[in-house]
Amino acid sequence: MENGTKARESLQGRVALVTGAAKRLGRAVAVRLAEEGADVVVHHRSSGAEAASAIVEIQKLGRRAVAIAADLGNVAEIKRLFDETAKYFGRLDILVNSAANFLPASIVSTTEQVWDSSLNTNLKAPFFCAQAAGPLLRRTRGTIINFADVGGILGWPGYVPHCVSKAGVIMLTRVLAKELAPEVQVNAIAPGTITMPGDPPEWEEDYIKRAPLKRSGRPSDITDTVLFLVRSEFITGQVLIVDGGRSL
Predict the structure, then answer these.
(1) How large is the angle between the packed helices 112-119 and 160-180, nearest 10 degrees?
(2) What's the CA gap between 238 and 61, in Å, rounded?
(3) What gap in Å lies between CA 101 and CA 117, rounded to an integer?
(4) What gap in Å lies between CA 117 and CA 160, rounded to an integer?
(5) How many Å separate Cα 199 from the centre of its chain?
(6) What is the average per-residue pLDDT within 212-230?
(7) Distance from CA of residue 32 to its chain's centroid?
(8) Which of 88, 159, 178, 207 is catalytic?
(9) Catalytic residue, candidates 60, 166, 207, 214
């Protein structure tokens, strides 16, 4: 391949599955991949209306899309998600593990239920999604992009299970990169200080104070990073921190 070709090529003919793609950053990633030419599986758990509108948005771009509901806390449901993807599209090139929760819990307030919910959604699910996707991605020499978090690097006392789960995603990324090489590249993005349309203005004010770049990030900062990793050929096992310098 000519140097730089992959960086310029469209994603025409490639299939992406984005978990948690009905809303917020997951939806932004799914739409952006479609804009670049990919057909998309919009995973959701119970956000049927939002998933349906995401499908309409993607189809308006001229791409194929399907919404599949699955509880990622259930391994059988995860297997069904990827079986249905294979039946519908016949292939998988890109897996973006973006589904997550963000539950406040200190060492005092953490309950077993909160701990399990954080670890199941943020760490268990990405592993079993990667396990189910592995055979499909090996055939296409595909890529996995996990969503970590700056909380997995900094550690926030008021979010103990969340930070532990996201630190786990970072190690999971490194282990999977070795396990699935050389056919599959596995990387992670650690967003921070990102605001979405409709977020409370005080969030942005706080992020501006914390980030050396003195602004909050936008969804496009994350989707640009996803595309960079999708198109890279010699990066694996890495975590790209996209936080305006907050973690420094």
Answers:
(1) 30
(2) 31
(3) 8
(4) 12
(5) 20
(6) 96
(7) 13
(8) 159
(9) 166
- Band (pLDDT 50/70/90 cuts) for residue 1 is very low
Inter-axis angle of helices 24-35 and 219-231, nearest 10: 50
Please write the tens of the pLDDT for every residue from 150-206.
Answer: 999 999 999 999 999 999 999 999 999 999 999 999 999 999 999 988 889 888 898
- Whole-prediction pTM value? 0.94
Report the C-alpha gap between 58 and 143 in whole angstroms: 21
Asked if 88 is an active-site residue, the reply is no
For residue 60, indicate whether it is catalytic: no
* Residue that is written with structure tokens 């998933």 in the block: 51
Amino acid at 201: P
CA of 33: how far to CAs of 28, 153, 183, 223, 225, in Å?
9, 27, 21, 8, 11
What DSSP assignment string belongs to the chain? --TTHHHH---TT-EEEETTTTSHHHHHHHHHHHHTT-EEEEEESS-HHHHHHHHHHHHHTT--EEEEE--TTSHHHHHHHHHHHHHHHS---EEEE-------B-TTT--HHHHHHHHIIIIIHHHHHHHHHHHHHHHHT-EEEEE--THHHH--TTBHHHHHHHHHHHHHHHHHHHHHTTT-EEEEEEE-SB--TT--HHHHHHHHHH-TTSS-B-HHHHHHHHHHHHH-SS--S-EEEESTTTT-
End-to-end CA gap in the chain: 37
